[in-house]
Amino acid sequence: MKIILIFLLVLANINLTSGESLLKDHHFFLNVIYLEDERLPSIPEKDINIILNEARDELRLKFGAIYIHFDYKGKQDLKSFFDTYLNKGSDYYNNLSNYKYKFFSGSIDYSPFKKPILKFLKQWKLWDLKDFFDKETKKKIKTYDDVMEYLFKGYAEKLNKLESLKLENGEYLIDRENNNHNSYINWLVAMYFQDLYDIIITNTIIVYDDISKPYPHAVLRYAKVGGSSFESPNRVIFDGTSGMVNLFEMLTDISYFQKPYQEKELNKNDWNGIIGRYIMAHELAHMIYLIPDVYDHPKQCLMDSSYATMDYYEGYKLLKKYPFECPLCKPYANAREHHLLADDLFKKEDYEEAILHYKLAKKMTPNKLDIPYSGYISLLDYKIAHTFYKLDDKKSALLYLKNALKNDPNNEKAKQLYEQIK
Ligand SMILES: [Zn+2]
Ligand SMILES: [Zn+2]
After folding, report:
1. What is the mean pLDDT of the segment spanning 286-297?
2. 301 touches 322 (CB < 8 A)
3. For residue 338, what are the CA distances in angstroms to 213, 332, 361?
4. CA of 414 to the centre of ligand 2 (A)
């Protein structure tokens, strides 16, 4: 079944793109910073450029089309970053904190969120979710409700374990007082308000504390975050998205995390390759192509987060072994290329062509994205409207603005343009 589907998709792509990428020469210039947690093992700054180059090369291998250039801005203290950007008075924080696991509380009360959690889990097949559990548990799982129950059982165990871990000097890994930067929810907030960086590299431990989205590959592994993409409305390069790569697991001395791929066990090339290719390129593909974490794509897939690639080194070895595109990721790349091409055409004031490609992007975008689908479609509607406006076609512009606001009533740009021309 899967083979046939892949075959059909490959055919569809040949049709759509004649086997070639739309974008011949699209460049992204990304600001990168290293946020260092001084309590934890770190890396020499000279390694950062090597890692960035690995990520760039992997992305070109998997998706072609886009040139990435990294502008490394140096090292900054983690605490001062959070002091500046973690806006706890904001609505954004208040909203997210509803779903936040309270550190050291000992248990997770997910009962108020059962409905959204079930909806979240149902984006994957029951079969693929079962894979994350041991043999005995697998037998007991018959429904999504069962998955939820066992998922949260495992999740709570991992959280309690993280809270109990200590560093060599006897201090707790997660400080009892100063732990703002250890919360994933807090990262979401800080990244939402920061306006300077597209990619953040860090060596701190980030606990996955968003109860409403229990990604099995995250909560059952260590309940921590190895990398993520974020909403950053003030960063315009990817229409308001940024990313983070976490080196903690690759550097820590704590035996609980010891794996064959850690620095001492592996040659430096592979070590940099795991971070650059397996972790960073994956996050960049979330940001650029909006591909979600997938559990059912073929082995060469950069976005595969299934049980088979839960081990970084195993996942990295698969990427090395199959250095070619994933046919199931290709529709995402195609749709996104139309969008990026349309942006280029808009800048060149070729508005008629721009509209054509925005419309194609809208039509071709798969409906399971790494970000909310309706928000993304609203963005495309806004861009179509804006382009019609440039052509002085206010009637069409208003039509698309109405669509944009229907899909996302909080689309500020659409609201503004609507007020301006209605
Ligand atoms: Zn991912
Ligand atoms: Zn894929």
Report:
1. 90
2. no
3. 30, 10, 5
4. 32
Ligand 2 center from residue 294 Cα (angstroms): 7
CA of 229 from ligand 1 middle (Å) equals 8
DSSP state of 279: I
Given a contact cutoff of 8 angstroms between Cβ atoms, the answer to whether 284 and 55 are in contact is yes
Find the DSSP H helices in 194-280: 216-219, 248-251, 268-273
SS3 label, residue 243: strand
What is the mean pLDDT of the segment spanning 50-55?
Answer: 94
Distance 42 CA to ligand 2 centre (A): 32
Q: Which ligand is nearest to the CA of 225?
A: 1
Ligand nearest to the CA of 228: 1
Question: Quick one: which of 390, 389, 407, 406 has its CA closest to 398?
Answer: 389
DSSP 103: T
What mean pLDDT comes out for the span 323-347?
93
As a whole number of angstroms, the distance between CA 216 and CA 129 comes to 7
Ion ligand 1: protein residues whose beta carbon lies under 5 Å: 293
The Å distance, Cα 107 to ligand 1 centre, comes to 26
Q: What is the pLDDT of residues 97-149, one digit of tens each?
A: 999 999 998 789 999 999 999 999 998 999 889 989 999 999 999 999 999 99
Cβ neighbors of 250 (< 8 A, separation 6 or more) are 261, 262, 263, 271, 274, 275, 312
Identify the structural domains of the chain with CATH numbers, from first to last: 24-321 (no CATH), 330-421 (1.25.40.10)
Ligand nearest to the CA of 226: 1
pLDDT at 309 over 80: no
Which ligand gives the minimal distance to the CA of 329?
2
In the chain, the percentage of residues whose pLDDT exceeds 90 is 71
